[in-house]
Amino acid sequence: MRHILWTAAALLVLMLLGGCEKKEQTLQEKAAAQKDVIIDDAYVLLDKPKLMKMYREYNEGLLRDYDIDFRVVTTVSDEAIDTFTNKQFAKLQKESRSKSGKALLLVINTAQDKVRLEVSQALEPVFTDAFVSYIERKGFVPYFREYKIADGVYMATELVHDRATEAAAGKEFVPPMASKSIGGGAKAKAHIGIADPDAKKGAEVAANAADTPMDVMERYLKVLKTHNKNPNLDIYTDATKAFFAKWTVTDINQDHEVHNITPCKTHYETLYDTTDTHAVLAARPYDKHRTCSPYFFKKEEGKWKLDIATMAQTLRFNAQMQFHFDMEKRLEREGKYYAYAFDGYYFDGNGYPHKFNKKDPEWEKYRWKYSCNGYLHPGERKENAHCWIRYALPGGPANVRLGLEGYDKIYGFGEESQRKEHVTIRELIDYLNSVPRGEVATVILEHYYLNGKETNNFDAILDSNVEVRYETRHGIAP
Fold it and tell me: pTM higher than 0.85 for the full model?
């Protein structure tokens, strides 16, 4: 448009061609960005696709936000790791995705049991020798000790991202430990598969019957600050003890959690369920305090205890440490008992809670806050119509506690001897209304799939290739 003498037609053609070219370049850049980001010649990473997917997401964030090209290479080469790394780094610099020469290379030699993080000259003021040494020894090597190499690589990426964010905010790195300089990059013993005998040690911390969930949180903060990694603390639920017995906890993990909890304490309120067996420390409104993770508590042996196990099952965090839910696991097992704390909030496709502010007095009289349309299987009579969820009020119990959404088809309800199938609308309504407050309600959803894709077309359902899948949902009655 700067060249105003061009004809409109010529300009339009050029804009269209330019748009196509730009799109093609974007796709090419994206493909190039994924190429060789991970070279797993030791075959210790790519069998963990979920972790590697998260690694790539962090990696793309580093490139997009800070122009940092971070690569990982695993190897079993018998070449000295310094020599091997220098060769790989020279290759990386020639084909770097960074426009400003900001490159990092993590090399893990499983045969030599060594790890090296190489830092480009452009990044040495940010990723200092002290930082590199610190994250190797305190960050990802503890994962390598338990042969969780993919977890260690993912942790390394998190720490690199955090440091880049701090540097962008003008913060210097001051390691909370003695850390000597060992080069413009650093190598260390990886200790792969060599367990640390002190990894699960720490003094006992007792829970008391008079403690509130906030009292337990204060004790937990002391546990984190003292780097107490004892998995069997009395302030943990039994499931959490079992979780920590298998989970790798590092000093850095604990320091970060203290950093995240501390500014949230003034925002926390305690939300108790109707049976006084579950509680949530919540910073509401959730969509305003997304960096303040909710904390779950369960009463065991008459004492409030931290349910980190259920938090680990249901909660996820993005690069900015904003919490959201794993929508497939949010209501599984113990998770359903904490859903009450999110009444009034609906969840987007990524599991982030949003306040539903629409005021509609008409819905106040409905306990579960949903409505049905009728549907029939071929050959059924009108009076046998089944419930096809027409609307589940966002933030209402049917939506939050049972995870129901519009167009869900209800096949049945109840469990074991109480299970009933092919239920009608009337039967479903009566059942949900009959479940006592605080008790578990169970519904079975019916989904139809044709050629692998879900369909609501009942003509298609008559096709011999149709597949019917059933999904059971559990929720606590309001």
Answer: no
